[in-house]
C-alpha cells in the first residue's frame, strides 16, 4: 500500500478486536440521558443538536454497543438504524438490547448499507468520523439523506499527545486504548475544522455549526471537532456548482483561465483532490498571454498539447468572493494533440469526457460552471451569477 499503513489490519479487523476485548471484560456502557459528542460530560451540545426526531428515521453511523441509538429511541421516539462495521461490537448491542422495537441493529459497512437503504431524516456519528475516509462516506450520505436533513458528528481534533489536525485529507497513525490492554494500532483522520467545512460544502452540505470541544482539565490535550451540517436541496435535472473558497488570494491568483476542450467524445472534466469536477485551467503567470496560460495549464494538468493560435478567448467573467474581485477568462481549445492523462504533482486528475446533456449533477467547480454557462447558455447549469463580457470578434 502507498499510504504507509500496509502492516495495519483493516478497520473491520481493528474494531472486531476492540469489541472482543469489551466482550471479554463484560463491559457495557449505560444508556445515556444525553448524547455526549466529546469524551467529557457537560462539554458541548447534547441530543438537541439533532433537532426534532420523534417518529423520524435516524441513521447511527458506527453505533458500537448501541447505547446511543437506544437513548434516541427510548427518550426521543426516533426510529434508529444502528449501523456497525465490527461483528463483535454488533454482538454487544444485540445481546444487550434484544427487545428495542424502534432500533434496528445492522452489521455492515455504512456505505454498503446506504446503497439500498431508504432515505433518512437525520444522521449522526460520535467519534466514528475519525476512523472513516471522508471521501468514502460523505458522498454516500449526501445521496441517502433527505433534502434539508441534518448530519451531526464529532471527530478527532487532537490526540493524547496534543498532535493537532492535518490540513489535508490524509490519515495518520493512532492508537485505540482499552483499560488494562495493549493499545490497538490504527489510523485516523484528524482534519482541521476548515477542511471539514470545505469537504462538507463540496459534498452537498451547508455547515451550521463547527466547534472544537476541549477537555475541562487543563492538562488534558485531547480535543474533538463537533459539526452540525444540513443536506442542501438536490436537483434531478440541473448541474449544481460548488462554491470557491473565501480565503484571501495572492494578487497574481485573482486572474484565471478555464479551458474548454470539447469534441466528439464530449467535454473534458477532471476531478480535484477535494472532489470537484473542473475544466483544465489555472492562474495567469507573469509575462503570459491568456492563450499561453490556457495552453500551459492544458499540458501541465492533463498532458494535452495545443498551440496558442488554436485558442479562442470567449470573454471575461467578473464576480466578488469575500470582497476580492475575481476575473476568469473562458478559452475554447479548437485543436489539440494527445489523450488526457493524470500528471504528477497536479491536484486535478481522473480526466474523463462528459456529454453536455449528462454533466455531473453535483460538485461542478463554480468557475468552471460559470465559463460553461457563458459558452453554452442552453446547457442547464446552476452557476452563481457573474458579469460576463464577451470578447469582440472582428
UniProtKB/TrEMBL annotation:
<protein>
    <submittedName>
        <fullName>NUDIX domain-containing protein</fullName>
    </submittedName>
</protein>
<dbReference type="InterPro" id="IPR020084">
    <property type="entry name" value="NUDIX_hydrolase_CS"/>
</dbReference>
<keyword id="KW-0378">Hydrolase</keyword>
<dbReference type="Pfam" id="PF13649">
    <property type="entry name" value="Methyltransf_25"/>
</dbReference>
<dbReference type="InterPro" id="IPR000086">
    <property type="entry name" value="NUDIX_hydrolase_dom"/>
</dbReference>
<feature type="domain" description="Nudix hydrolase">
    <location>
        <begin position="250"/>
        <end position="377"/>
    </location>
</feature>
<dbReference type="GO" id="GO:0008168">
    <property type="term" value="F:methyltransferase activity"/>
</dbReference>
<dbReference type="InterPro" id="IPR029063">
    <property type="entry name" value="SAM-dependent_MTases_sf"/>
</dbReference>
<dbReference type="GO" id="GO:0016787">
    <property type="term" value="F:hydrolase activity"/>
</dbReference>
<dbReference type="InterPro" id="IPR020476">
    <property type="entry name" value="Nudix_hydrolase"/>
</dbReference>
<comment type="similarity">
    <text>Belongs to the Nudix hydrolase family.</text>
</comment>
<dbReference type="InterPro" id="IPR041698">
    <property type="entry name" value="Methyltransf_25"/>
</dbReference>
<dbReference type="Pfam" id="PF00293">
    <property type="entry name" value="NUDIX"/>
</dbReference>
<dbReference type="InterPro" id="IPR015797">
    <property type="entry name" value="NUDIX_hydrolase-like_dom_sf"/>
</dbReference>
Amino acid at each position: 500500500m502507498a499510504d504507509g499503513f500496509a502492516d495495519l489490519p483493516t478497520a473491520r479487523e481493528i474494531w472486531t478486536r476492540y469489541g472482543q476485548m469489551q466482550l471479554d471484560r463484560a463491559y457495557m456502557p449505560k444508556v445515556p440521558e444525553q448524547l455526549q459528542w466529546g469524551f467529557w460530560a457537560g462539554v458541548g451540545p447534547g441530543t438537541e443538536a439533532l433537532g426534532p426526531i420523534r417518529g423520524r428515521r435516524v441513521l447511527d453511523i458506527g453505533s458500537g454497543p448501541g447505547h446511543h441509538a437506544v437513548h434516541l429511541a427510548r427518550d426521543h421516539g426516533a426510529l434508529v438504524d444502528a449501523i456497525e462495521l465490527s461483528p463483535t461490537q454488533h454482538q454487544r448491542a444485540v445481546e444487550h438490547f434484544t427487545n428495542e422495537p424502534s432500533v434496528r441493529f445492522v452489521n455492515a459497512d455504512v456505505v454498503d448499507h446506504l446503497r439500498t437503504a431508504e432515505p433518512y431524516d437525520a444522521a449522526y456519528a460520535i467519534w466514528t468520523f475519525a476512523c472513516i475516509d471522508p471521501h468514502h462516506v460523505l458522498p454516500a450520505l449526501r445521496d441517502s439523506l433527505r433534502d434539508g436533513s441534518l448530519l451531526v458528528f464529532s471527530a478527532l481534533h487532537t490526540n493524547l499527545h496534543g498532535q493537532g489536525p492535518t490540513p489535508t485529507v490524509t490519515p495518520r497513525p493512532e492508537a485505540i486504548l482499552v483499560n488494562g490492554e495493549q493499545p490497538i494500532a490504527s489510523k485516523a483522520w484528524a482534519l482541521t475544522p476548515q477542511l471539514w467545512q470545505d469537504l462538507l460544502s463540496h459534498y452537498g452540505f451547508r455547515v451550521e455549526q463547527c466547534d472544537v470541544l476541549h477537555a475541562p482539565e487543563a492538562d488534558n490535550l485531547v480535543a474533538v471537532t463537533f459539526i452540525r451540517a444540513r443536506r442542501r436541496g438536490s436537483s434531478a435535472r440541473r448541474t449544481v456548482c460548488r462554491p470557491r473558497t473565501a480565503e484571501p488570494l495572492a494578487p497574481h491568483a485573482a486572474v484565471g483561465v478555464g479551458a474548454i476542450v470539447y469534441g466528439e467524445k464530449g467535454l473534458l472534466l477532471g476531478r480535484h483532490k477535494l472532489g470537484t469536477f473542473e475544466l483544465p485551467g489555472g492562474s495567469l503567470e507573469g509575462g503570459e498571454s491568456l492563450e499561453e496560460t490556457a495552453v500551459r495549464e492544458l499540458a501541465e494538468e492533463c498532458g494535452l498539447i495545443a498551440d496558442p493560435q488554436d485558442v479562442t478567448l470567449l470573454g471575461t467573467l467578473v464576480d466578488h468572493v469575500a470582497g476580492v474581485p475575481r476575473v476568469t477568462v473562458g478559452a475554447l481549445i479548437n485543436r489539440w494533440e494527445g489523450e488526457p492523462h493524470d500528471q504528477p504533482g497536479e491536484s486535478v486528475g481522473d480526466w474523463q469526457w462528459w456529454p453536455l446533456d449528462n454533466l455531473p449533477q453535483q460538485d461542478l467547480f463554480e468557475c468552471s460552471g460559470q465559463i460553461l454557462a457563458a459558452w453554452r447558455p442552453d446547457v442547464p447549469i446552476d452557476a452563481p451569477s457573474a458579469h460576463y463580457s464577451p470578447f469582440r470578434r472582428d
